[in-house]
């Protein structure tokens, strides 16, 4: 796609191969900026042989998508584009995009900002990249963290920033399923969800997602546990769900919780990461201190009268609309982009939204 010169454009940069939490965040961010009349483009670090699901979704929203590393382009081309077009800001997501844009923007004097999403410490080679990404935060004009735990891992004082979703076209769910939605991996604790299905054999449980633990979870699973695999589009799937169980060992502020609560789906979650900033226990959902307490909360919720359940669901929706929607977050973020170019700042001073 040929670029149009827009000097106040915000460039969102991400390396995307599959469609996960960070990709969903970037999609919501791009859509929110566009709806707030802030010009925005999305740059993918690499064009992989398999078409990008994120690119397809963005293009369906008429949001322009470009590639840094493609058949005829490279980081050098990206560097030249920055010099020629002078975007308002470059906003990176994920360690590959973050490290690349920090270096290139340093030499072009382009305001660069990184959002740090990962709360857990990665393993293997990625752990080293993650370390470099965090400690090179000193090179960024601004840094954003989506949870307190992530903030504490950075050598600067970042802006604390709520995750958010677009709520204008979301309708309440009429579903009844008890579901796990997300990556089937150690940190998300699908083994705890499997145990829940064993402990409550009279209820049905559903897993939506894929990951390295799928075979282990499927093996010897009870008859009331159903696997639906990876979902390219969760919009219709949410309509089948009535209760979302988040039994994670580690979390930041998961978008799945926001997506569920925006639809009035009750979230029962382990009290990890920043979920306590989202869920008020017994008011708009439930928090538990241990995974063993989830079964008790499920039984308790189902014992409530229809009117009380409805009130909890309405409270969940109100929470998202008031504090975690694009309408509530975009004005502050756009102001940050504009101030980055206009003002000097220090990341060593307290920054809050």
Percent in helix: 25-40%
- Give the strand content: 15-25%
Mean pLDDT: 91
The quaternary organization reads as single chain
Strand order of the largest sheet: 3-2-1-4-5-6-7
* Main sheet attributes: strand count, strand direction, barrel closure: 7 strands, parallel
So how many helices? 14
Say how many strands there are: 13
* Global geometry: globular
Terminal Cα span:
35 Å
Poorly predicted runs: none
Round the Cα radius of gyration to an integer and report it.
Answer: 21 Å
Could you describe the 3D structure shown?
The chain is of the alpha/beta class. The protein folds into two domains: 10-165 and 326-342, Rossmann fold; 177-323, Glycogen Phosphorylase B (Rossmann fold). The chain contains 14 helices and 13 strands. Helix 1 packs across helix 14 (326-342) and helix 3 (75-85) crosses helix 4. The longest helix is centred in the last third of the chain and has 18 residues, at 306-323. The protein is globular and about 65 Å long.
SSE diagram, text form:
Elements (H helix, E strand, L loop, with lengths): L9 E5 L6 H15 L4 E7 L6 H8 L4 E5 L5 H11 L3 E5 L1 H14 L3 E5 L8 H11 L6 E4 L2 H5 L6 E2 L16 E5 L8 H10 L5 E4 L5 H5 L6 E5 L5 H4 L2 E6 L8 H8 L3 E5 L4 H4 L7 E3 L5 H10 L2 H18 L2 H17 L11
Parallel strand pairs: 1-2, 1-4, 2-3, 4-5, 5-6, 6-7, 8-9, 8-11, 9-10, 11-12, 12-13
Keywords:
353 residues; alpha/beta; Rossmann fold; 2 domains; seven-stranded parallel beta sheet
Give a quick summary of the entry:
The chain has helices spanning 21-35, 53-60, 75-85, 95-108, 125-135, 148-152, 190-199, 214-218, 235-238, 255-262, 275-278, 294-303, 306-323, 326-342, and strands spanning 10-14, 40-46, 65-69, 89-93, 112-116, 142-145, 159-160, 177-181, 205-208, 225-229, 241-246, 266-270, 286-288.
């Amino acid at each position: 796609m040929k670029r149009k010169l827009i000097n106040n454009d915000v460039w969102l940069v991400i390396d995307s191969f599959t469609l996960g939490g960070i990709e969903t965040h970037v999609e919501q961010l791009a859509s929110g900026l566009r709806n707030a009349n802030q010009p925005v483009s999305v740059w993918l670090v690499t064009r992989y042989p398999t078409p990008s699901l994120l690119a397809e979704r963005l293009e369906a929203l008429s949001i322009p998508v470009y590639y840094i590393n493609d058949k005829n382009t490279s980081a050098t081309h990206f560097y030249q584009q920055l010099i020629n077009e002078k975007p308002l800001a470059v906003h990176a997501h994920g360690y590959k995009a973050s490290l690349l844009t920090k270096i290139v923007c340093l030499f072009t004097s382009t305001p660069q900002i990184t959002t740090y999403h990962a709360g857990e410490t990665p393993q293997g080679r990625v752990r080293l990249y993650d370390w470099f990404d965090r400690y090179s935060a000193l090179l960024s004009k601004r840094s954003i963290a989506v949870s307190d735990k992530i903030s504490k891992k950075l050598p600067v004082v970042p802006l604390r920033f709520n995750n958010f979703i677009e709520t204008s076209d979301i309708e309440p769910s009429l579903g009844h399923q008890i579901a796990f939605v997300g990556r089937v991996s150690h940190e998300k604790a699908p083994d705890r969800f499997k145990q829940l299905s064993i402990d409550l054999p009279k209820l049905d449980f559903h897993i939506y997602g894929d990951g390295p633990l799928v075979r282990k979870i499927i093996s010897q699973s009870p008859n009331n546990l159903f696997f639906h695999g990876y979902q390219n589009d969760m919009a219709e799937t949410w309509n089948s769900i009535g209760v979302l169980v988040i039994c994670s060992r580690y979390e930041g502020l998961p978008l799945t919780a926001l997506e569920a609560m925006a639809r009035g789906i009750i979230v029962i979650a382990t009290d990890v990461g920043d979920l306590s900033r989202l869920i008020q226990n017994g008011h708009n959902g439930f928090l538990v201190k241990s995974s063993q307490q989830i079964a008790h909360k499920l039984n308790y919720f189902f014992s409530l009268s229809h009117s009380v359940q409805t009130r909890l669901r309405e409270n969940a929706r109100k929470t998202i609309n008031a504090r975690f929607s694009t309408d509530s977050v975009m004005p502050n973020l756009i102001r940050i982009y504009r101030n980055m170019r206009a003002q000097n700042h220090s990341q060593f001073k307290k920054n809050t939204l």
